[in-house]
Amino acid sequence: MGKNALFNAAGVVVPALCGVLAMPVLVQNMGLERVAIFALMLGFYGFSGFFDFGLSRALTQSVAAIDGFAQAKQKISAAVIKVFVASMLLSTLWALLFYLLADFLALGVFELNGSLASEASSAMRWFAISLPPLLLSGCATGLLEGLQLFGKVNLLKVPISVLMIVVPAVWSSFHPELDSVLAGMVGLRVVALVCWLLLVRNALRQILDYREVRASSTETKSLWRFSAWLSISNLVGPIIAYSDRFFLAAVYPMQYVAYYTVPLDTLVRAMGVPSAAANAVFPAIARAGVDSKETAALFKGAIFVTACFWAVPLIVLSSILSIVLELWLGAAFRDNSLELTRWLVFGVMLNGFSHIPYALIHAAGRADVTARLHLLQLPLYFLMLWALASRFGAEGAAIAWSLRILIDAMMLYAFVFTHFKPAKDVIQVSVLVPLLMMAIFGIGVFEF
Predict the structure, then answer these.
(1) Where residue 211 falls among pLDDT bands split at 50, 70, 90?
(2) pTM check: above 0.70
(3) Degrees, nearest 5: CA angle 442-444-448
(4) Could you tell me which residues come within 8 angstroms of residue 328 by beta carbon, excluding any fewer than 6 positions away?
(5) How far apart are alpha carbons 138 and 64 in whole angstroms?
(6) Is 178:102 a contact under the CB 8 Å cutoff?
């Protein structure tokens, strides 16, 4: 499992580093205004988990629970066919909807004018075309992760993710228009889908049927129930995650919004590291059971790993952030985004610890819990965003974003400790280690 976590982390770190290098190129070629709109459009991809109604994640949980037991091959194949057909239908409907609403989104939501509005409208149509290959690729990944084939997943995922970052940066040197950049990304997604389907075909052929019988294997009904609750979470979650950008875009000029979205998008990419590690733990917990000793040991170990390899590097980054921002995007950008980026780094650090209870809850098949928690957070976050961003601008939005992550983490840990049976030392570690990291972060920021 540790090897799987490393595979997943590598699958995030390499593209994230490429993103850091590509961002100055995009800013130089496209300009801050186009980059801000580009970041807002990429925000729609954050809703991919809702667009497929959580089917890819549900498939992971279902396959992990079935694999290795009686009639596994037949059950997995049946689930895969149902999920892929449903995903194809859903993605086609979403594609038609976004295609028809392209002009409204460009003119009404982004409030653009002239040639920039035309570019954005055309780019939104290309985004619509990319939805079917995007969602089907997500289902393929869900199957492979459920079978714990993380090495194969990341051997394909890394080059695809790198190309998704490098190609727009290089292409923008010749064609900086938004629609041209999005069109290139659509071609890459089609090629990626073909590769994913070939990998799925080979994986299905290699599934073995064991003679072991289990009394309650996951059936199709539980898959749809898990998917339905997860789709709610995957709708509310991105609304929470991206509402800050659209709020700022509605109030401030696009160039100002770029000072917020550029560091945020880079840090959100980095958040894939703890998420990738949690995804490696997720299918293993689904098989071992949430109340097992193995799961308690995994939970405790994940806290320490997150502290050492996630929180500590971010604490170091926060202490030298001024230098990093100037070297990365220049002194003017540093002056406009330094303080808000510190708040974002703080929130990103806390988010790493949230992925651990999140994986445990989903491995137990309780997607309804995270959906309900997101619904509770939604009005509170909107209130914080409106109050803080209206008064402090982009920095206020960053503060609201980080506070929401803190509240989310507290809710997730509270549910795990009250509904499952972790060992006493697991609870102590889960509380004390994040608090220690938060204290060190605060000291590091004020000292430097």
Answers:
(1) very low
(2) no
(3) 125
(4) 20, 23, 24
(5) 16
(6) no
Q: How far apart are the C-alpha atoms of 210 and 68, rounded to whole Å? A: 6
Two structure tokens written together for 253: 């000029």
In terms of Cα–Cα distance, which of 416, 278, 243 is closest to 352? 278
Answer for the pair 23, 245: CB distance below 8 angstroms, yes or no.
Answer: no
Q: How far is CA 327 from CA 258, 322, 331, 448, in A?
A: 17, 9, 8, 17
Average pLDDT, the chain: 78
CA distance linking residue 308 with residue 303, whole number of Å:
9
Q: What is the CA radius of gyration of the chain?
A: 21
Tell which wins on pLDDT, 207 or 91: 91
Q: Is the per-residue pLDDT at 277 higher than 70?
A: no
Residue 65 CA to residue 76 CA, distance in Å, equals: 10
pLDDT of res. 251:
80
What's 292's DSSP letter?
S
Across 431-437, average pLDDT: 86
List all residues 6 or more positions away from 190 whose beta carbon is below 8 Å from its beta carbon. 133
Alpha helices in 46-71 (DSSP H): 48-51, 55-66
CA atoms in the 13 A half-sphere facing the CB of 7: 18
SS3 46: coil
Which residue, chain included where needed, has tokens 């939970």? 299
For 241, the 3-state DSSP assignment is: helix
Torsion sign across C-alpha atoms 288, 139, 233, 244: positive
CB atoms within 10 A of CB 211: 6
More confident residue, 109 or 263: 263
Q: What is the pLDDT of residues 50-75, one digit of tens each?
A: 676 677 777 776 776 665 555 666 77
Q: Tell me how far apart the alpha carbons of residues 144 and 367 are, in angstroms, rounded to a whole number.
A: 20
Residues 378, 233: Cα–Cα separation, whole Å: 11
What is the distance between the alpha carbons of residues 416 and 414, in angstroms, rounded to a whole number?
A: 6
**Dist. CA 428–CA 48, nearest whole Å:** 36
More confident position, 382 or 238: 382
pLDDT at 383: 93
Here the tokens at position 148 are 């714990």
Other beta carbons within 10 Å of 368: 16
